[in-house]
Amino acid sequence: MSARGLAAALVVAVTASAGVSAYLKFGAEVASGTVPLKWAQLPVRYFVTDRGAPGAGATDLDAALTRAFRSWQDVDRATITFERGGFTGSLPFEPDGVTVIGFLSRPDLERTLGATAYTYDTRSGALVEADIFLNSEFPWSVATGGEAGRFDLESVALHEIGHLTGLGHSALGETELRPGGGRRVIAAEAVLFPIAFSPGSIAGRILRPDDIAGVSDIYPESRFRSETGSISGRVLKSGRGVFGAHLVAFNLRTGDLVGGYTLSEDGGFTLAGLEPGPHVVRVEPLDDGDVESFFDEAERVDLDFAATFADRTVVVQAGRNAGDLTIRVDPR
Amino acid sequence: MRATTWIPADLRALVSAASAVAYGRVVAVDVQLAETSRAVERRVVVRVSDYYKGQLGGEVLLRVPGGTLGGYRTVVVGAPEFREGEEVVLFLRGETAGPASLVGLAQGVVRVRVDPQSGLRRVWPPASAAMADTQGRVLRGQGPRRVMALEAFAAEVRQIVERRERPGRPR
Amino acid sequence: MKRRLAGALLAAWWAASPMPSSAQAPPTTTAGQPAVTAAESVPARPPRYELALGPAWLGGYDLGARSAQLTGNLGQPGLVLFETDTEMAGGFGLDAKLGYRLTPTLRLEAGLAYSRPELRTSVSDDAEGADALVAVDPVSQYVVEGALLAYVPRWQVGNGVPYALAGAGYLRQVASEGAAVDSGGVYHAGGGMAWERAGAASWLDAWGLRADVRVNLRTGGIDIEDATRVWPSLSARFYVAF
């Protein structure tokens, strides 16, 4: 299949699987239709490359991964589980049918701390392996309280493992330009925000409500649907649907922020995994230059509108959908 | 979709890190196993129309992780996708001979959108000072339209290149 | 606390109320004709039941403020994406009651109160300049309640007789166009005035008007905290006694 088909397949799958979705969930098109990219068999078995990097040996990596995997596994309303298979001499990104996580030296990827890759069977859609590489060209830290000038290994591992479960990026974050060039995070409220916190920060070790809602949505425990609710609706501009808008639901009772996107041409969205209580909903364009961080076919994404609040407070009840919220935005 | 943790670059950083900035059309996309790592990768050929910085020849060969081989598809969710026929601006690192690599992986690709009726070419550029408020914050949904005509984007890139080559010259 | 309140009200009523029946005899005018009072001369068949209906106004109450906060990067305090301030705004409603006269001065009543307050959230100070607004969700509010009314004829003012009341009820709130339902308890106490006339028909022993002001206390229901809320209300009811 050409790259065009691949890109189309991933976006189509996301759209088709957006029936109840707080997130972009990875998906793929196969002969029989579209299937979500998720692990059919649990626990997910992984191996750790027996190789270290500056600031973190192989055992340090192993320990950090154990903590990070446990964070995801401990999500109350999600069924995802993991099993450590041990050390291996294999490297990540080798098509060997085994999920491998390890350090790789990639000086050509000088702005990439880590990345996740999937391999799946194009006939059935079955996920075969999902490897994670962490770039050993960067200085890493496994210190309990973080280390100045070094990236926190557990935080980046936690983010990449989120992708390994099938989650896409969250747009819950704000950035600023650095005086010397480049950008940095001002603040973020999701581990799955694509841009890392600064070296020395350990704030990325804690899963946020947005992350928890996402993984629970993909691997729901029986209580997930009965104990949380959702908000559905549409974002319209001049009467037409807005594709690719970013939405945030703010729970007035708990202070939780959970994000989502309009994933259809009619501007439809569903924000799921919400704790019960009154919510304020906000919509904004993904126009800060990172559209491709969220959508493959970026040209479909509408960026021409201002951030807007819904004019209705929405009370979410456990086990129910508060549907039919229409948010009208204006062109800039 | 993207599945990386990255350190974002603004436009100045991309221009600075690139040995070449090229505008061109994707003419071929092929999949094979990498020679050293055996990882699945795509070889993307871009026919260059114009260079805003540097010079790597009339055609540029890119190696991008991921692709479909046999009955299996590998998606390196972090690597950019390319379609034959699309127009792109690439921030590249490389020499004239041999494959080039993208600065910052997907960050080094700026898509060119062609209006089917007018033929006008426009881009959504990487973050730049024009997008930030007085405190340097990059705000969503704010300020003037961020889409730029390709010519204006090219001029901005060239201006950054010129400033870097002549640092003492007043703006 | 509720027991003490109930006890205090009962004690006050007992202290203030006259002896039954005999004190209900109406004062006479200078012409020797009985004036119209809230407690008429003993009719042939004392009214036992009352049916009351009328409008009510409910005051609002504050629910609290919240900041939408993002976790800050190293050395940064965090970013407030926007601010919110929420209230349950008051409004008008309808009140229907069925009462039973235990004694000439003591009534027991039960009924339904319906109102449509608004859950209003002021959203402001958006970090990216989104326009401030007030997000509104109308709430259909039902209260099934009962109350004890104690009249104090010795404090009669003109034709009006004051009374004290206290009661409790079950609260049901339906929000977001029926998508959310919550419940709680409501307690109230207050006082008012009643004006009554003799009925003109054989089935109608008396009719009148009651107006009262209450302090209401709510537990549970739609809220952003687990807190007890207090608000005032005014009601006026036309009633018939039979």
Structural overview:
Chain A is of the alpha/beta class. Chain A has two domains: 37-214, Collagenase (Catalytic Domain), CATH 3.40.390.10; 228-329, Immunoglobulin-like (Sandwich), CATH 2.60.40. In chain A, 17% of the residues lie in helices and 33% in strands. Chain A contains five helices and 20 strands. Chain A has helices at residues 3-16, 58-73, 153-164, 209-218, 222-227; strands at residues 27-30, 33-36, 44-49, 82-88, 100-104, 112-121, 127-135, 140-141, 151-152, 173-177, 183-188, 229-237, 240-241, 246-251, 257-261, 268-274, 277-284, 308-309, 314-316, 321-329. In chain A, the strands form six sheets. Chain A has a five-stranded mixed sheet, covered by helices on one side. In chain A, strands 14, 15, 17, 18 and 19 form a five-stranded antiparallel sheet that branches. In chain A, helix 2 (58-73) crosses helix 3. Chain A is globular. Chain A starts with a helix and ends with a strand. Residues 1-23 of chain A have low confidence and may be disordered. Chain B is mainly beta. Chain B has one domain (11-165): OB fold (Dihydrolipoamide Acetyltransferase, E2P) (Beta Barrel), CATH 2.40.50. Chain B contains two helices and twelve strands; from the N terminus they run E-H-E-E-E-E-E-E-E-E-E-E-E-H. Chain B has helices at residues 11-17, 150-165; strands spanning 4-6, 20-33, 40-53, 59-65, 67-69, 72-77, 87-93, 101-102, 109-114, 121-123, 137-138, 148-149. In chain B, the strands form two sheets. In chain B, strands 2, 3, 4, 7, 8, 9, 10 and 12 form an eight-stranded antiparallel sheet that branches. A two-stranded antiparallel sheet of chain B has the order 5-6. In chain B, strand 9 (109-114) and strand 10 (121-123) form a beta hairpin. In chain B, helix 1 packs across helix 2 (150-165). The longest helix of chain B has 16 residues, at 150-165. The model of chain B has no long low-confidence stretch (mean pLDDT 83). Chain C has 242 residues and is mostly beta strands. Chain C has one domain (2-69, 79-231). Helix content of chain C is 6%, strand content 60%. Chain C has one helix spanning 2-16, and strands at residues 49-58, 61-72, 79-89, 91-103, 106-115, 118-124, 133-138, 140-151, 160-175, 180-198, 206-220, 229-241. In chain C, the strands form two sheets. Chain C has an eight-stranded antiparallel β-barrel. Chain C has a four-stranded antiparallel sheet with strand order 2-3-6-7, with no helix packed on it. In chain C, strand 10 and strand 11 form a beta hairpin. Chain C is elongated and about 80 Å long. Mean pLDDT of chain C is 84; it is low at 14-36 and 38-43. Strand 6 (112-121) of chain A pairs antiparallel with strand 6 of chain B, so a sheet runs across the interface.
